[in-house]
Design goal:
Two copies of one chain form a homodimer. Chain A has two domains: about 55 residues, Arc Repressor Mutant, subunit A; about 140 residues, Tetracycline Repressor, domain 2. Chain A has ten helices and no strands. In chain A, helix 1 crosses helix 2. The longest helix of chain A is centred in the first third of the chain and has 33 residues. At the A-B interface, helix 1, helix 6, helix 7, helix 8 and helix 9 of A face helix 1, helix 6, helix 7, helix 8 and helix 9 of B. The first copy, chain A, binds a DNA duplex (18 and 18 nucleotides) through helix 1 and helix 3.
Chain lengths: ~220, ~220
DNA sequence: GTCTATACACTGATAGAC
DNA sequence: GTCTATCAGTGTATAGAC
């Protein structure tokens, strides 16, 4: 056995260290990109947050843009996965309610990702334009079909599904993207558990009644 | 009359030129800041868009940050002024409906301003934190009082005014801040007049019914 | 007031020792 | 694989001619 390239322990260990390093860098990058934007973020600052020398970042991610691209991709996939609750529901109040809960939980637990996504889209989606045109468009069309079925079945009013989805995205992501403004208006304090609960309940109630959900 | 500092024509002419130049620069800066973010924007690019040499920008605005500050301030004031329709209304459906119309019109006509504002808040409002704590807080408290009066008068359901306002801001500004995503999902075409009208009607209908407006 | 030329700092990226 | 030292390029800001 002259070949050692397949020896499991060493290979695994190497892969592990690489994955750990990449995850560490991606996490630091998400934080810095969300706070400073792509242009305002520096590789030096990301390296400092990750606790690594700057050159290591360029070893794992050749350019600043490639690092940013992976950050945005990771956010997009997490976000899509969490959105699947939409399908496992009988009617609009249940499905949309679960979707609001899921998205509000993301806004609360991972506001950085939401901000990076918002910033990317606001600047014309230079990096993830293809995702918008393919994956996001397909997901959206699928959800529109579900909503149209609910309408056809008389389970909710005849609301334009597209504008309903935009309202759901806007309202839930607002609590992440504009979290600083909300906290300031809240007496410069982060929302409490109870206030997050109130926010969810208010949104679900307004939208559920607003679309005439009857499930 | 040895003093000529008060001579109206010359003084006016000078002031006019200064105001014109400042307005030109502010307009170019708003555009560039909204497309590239504060960190991504360069004084050179703003100068090119304005059609002026770079040094002229520093003559009218000493630093990049001072220029950015004035852009954000201008947006904030325009936005506050347009929000006053809230008060000249008898009930929630009329007042909130007019507010939605006004904010959607801003999103449509001045999406750049909305994006700059969003970016500023997302990055922790480093420049306009004091506005959030004073002017915006006062405006918000005033509108909360109006909504609470409507609730007390039985003109709408007992919705938390704060979360209702956040929903209004989120939904209307989404059409500016995420306009690129919406256009992409619209077949890579900007929304037509009719689609903007549909958006407004859908939002007003969902929210008006969602809060049980009875005016 | 306006513009050209330039100073000075910083950034992304890399070379090369370990 | 990891890190120090460094380069080339670009950014803000200013000095000084006009």
């Amino acid at each position: 056995m002259p070949e050692s390239s397949n020896s499991p322990p060493k290979s695994n260990s190497k892969k592990m260290r690489r994955q750990e390093a990449e995850a560490l860098i991606l996490s630091a990058a998400e934080k810095v990109f969300s706070e400073a934007g792509f242009g305002g973020a520096t590789m030096q600052l990301i390296a400092d947050v990750a606790g690594l020398p700057k050159a290591n970042l360029h070893y794992y991610f050749p350019t600043k843009e490639s690092l940013y691209r992976q950050v945005v991709q990771k956010i997009f996939l997490d976000w899509l996965k969490a959105a699947d609750v939409f399908d496992h529901a009988d009617g609009p109040a249940e499905g949309i309610g679960a979707y609001i809960d899921a998205k509000m939980e993301i806004s609360r637990r991972h506001p950085e990702g939401s901000k990076v996504w918002a910033s990317e889209v606001m600047h014309g989606a230079p990096v993830i334009q293809d995702y918008l045109e393919t994956t996001l468009k397909e997901w959206t069309d699928g959800r529109i079909a579900v909503i149209e079925r609910w309408i056809a079945e008389g389970r909710m009013d005849a609301i334009d599904p597209r504008h309903l989805l935009y309202m759901l995205w806007a309202t839930t992501q607002h609590y992440a993207d504009f979290g600083h403004q909300i906290a300031t208006l809240n007496g410069s304090t982060e929302l409490t558990d109870a206030q997050w609960q109130e926010a969810k309940e208010n949104i679900k109630r307004i939208i559920s009644r607003g679309i005439g959900a009857r499930d």
